Amino acid sequence: MSRSIWGVNLILSLLFLACMVPLAQSQNLGSFEEISAANFFGVGARQMGMGGVGIATALDGASLYHNPAGLARLSAVEFQFGLTNQKFENRSSQPPGRFTGFSSTLNRAQADLSKSRFASVIISVPYPTYRGSLVIAGGITKLMSFDRASLLHVIDRRNDGLVIDDYSSESEEGAIYSYTVGAAIELSPHLSVGASLAVLSGDDRFDFENYYSDQTNDFIEGGAGFVSESYIGVSAKAGLLLRPNAHLAWGLTVESPVQLEVQYDYEEDWYQTDISDGIVYSYYSDDYLEYTLVHPVRFGTGLSLRSGTFMIAADIDYADWSQMKYQNNIELEIDNNSLKALYRSVLNWRAGIEYQYPRFGLALRGGIFSQPLPYGKANIENDRTGYSLGIGWLTGGHLLVEAAYLSGQFDRLYTAANNIQTLAEDEYKRIYLTISYR
Questions:
Q1: What is the pLDDT of residues 248-266, one digit of tens each?
Q2: What is the C-alpha separation between 146 and 126, in angstroms, rounded?
Q3: Distance (Å, rounded) from C-alpha 4 to C-alpha 15?
Q4: CATH of 3-437, one of 2.40.160.60, 3.40.630.30, 1.20.1250.20, 3.40.30.10
C-alpha cells in the first residue's frame, strides 16, 4: 500500500475510533454526557396540549407531577390513565469534500423510530374535611424517554478510483418512570400547599454499529457494541398555589436534588482488516460501573389568567446543570470539575392557551415551549423548541377524554478526531392521550 493511502487510512482510522463513541457520549462531552440530564417527557394531555404549562393550571391528577398543591382543587375521586406515542427522526450530515482531493457522492442519512408506551395512571382521592380541602394522590408516570435513533452514511471518491465508505447506525430505547405519592391541603379559600415523594426507576439500552471500507485497497474496519444502564433513585417536590380571585392563579414549586443510583454496562467488538498487506487486527472491550448521579435542585413558577371560557398561562423553571455531580465512585468523582465545565444552567419557559365550549363539552388548546439543552453552547447548533395543540371532550359529565400533539426539534454538532463536524438534526413528534373518570 502506498504511503499516501496509509496516510488517508490513518486519518480515517482516527475518525472511526472517534465515531465508535456513541452519539449519546459525543466527542465534545466525552464520557460525561448523561442522557437523564434535562430529559423530561411530559405528563397529562391537557398540560402538554398547552406546551407543558401546569404549575398554575391545576384541574386534574397530573398536578401530582406539575405542582402537588393543585391537587387540593379536586373535589371528587378521579382515576386518570394515559398513553403516548413518539416518532423520533434524525437527519445526520457531514460537509462535502471532507478530505483534500476527494468529492462527496453521499454525505447525509436519516433514521426514524416510533414507539407507543404506557404514560401514566394516577388516582386522586379527596378526604372529607370539616373545612377546606385535603386530597391524597398516587400514581405512575413516564418521566423520561430515551427512545431515539440515528444513521450516518458518507461516501467520498477520488479521481484515481479510491472510494471511502463510512457507515454508522445507532438506536436507543428505554425510559424512567416515577412512582409517586402526594397530598395537598387548602390552608384558606385562596391558598393551597402540597408535597410529593417519588421513587424513580428505569433502564436504557444503546446499540451502535460502525463500518468503514476503502474499496480500492480492501481496507475494512468496523465494530458493534452496546451500553446498558439501569437507574433507581428518589426525589421530592413541594408546591403552593395562590388564587386571589376567580381569574388569577400563581404557583411555585421546588424539587429536591434527584439522586440516581446507576449501573453501567458496556461491551464492544472492533476489527480491522487490510487484505493487500495481510493485516488483521481485532479487540474486545467491556466495562462495568456503579455510581450515584445527583441532579441539581429545580425551581418553577407559573401564572394563569382566566376570563370566562378563555385562559392564558405561562411557566418557567430553572436548574443549574453545572452542579450535577458523581458520588460513591472515586474514579468518577475526580471528574466532577469536568461536569461543571461541560454543563450550563438552563431556564425553560412554556406558554399556552385554552378555550372552552361548555355547550359541547369541548376545550381547544395550543402552546409553545423552549427547553434548552443542558450542554455547553459549543455543542448546540439550535436549541430545543417546539409547539403543541390539544383538545378535550367531556362526555356524560364524568368521563373526560383529552389528546395533545407536540412537535419539537433541536440541532447538535459532533466533532470527530480530525475536526470534521457532524450535524445531527433531531425532530420528535408526540401524541398524548389521557382518559379521566370522576
A1: 999 999 999 999 999 999 9
A2: 35
A3: 17
A4: 2.40.160.60
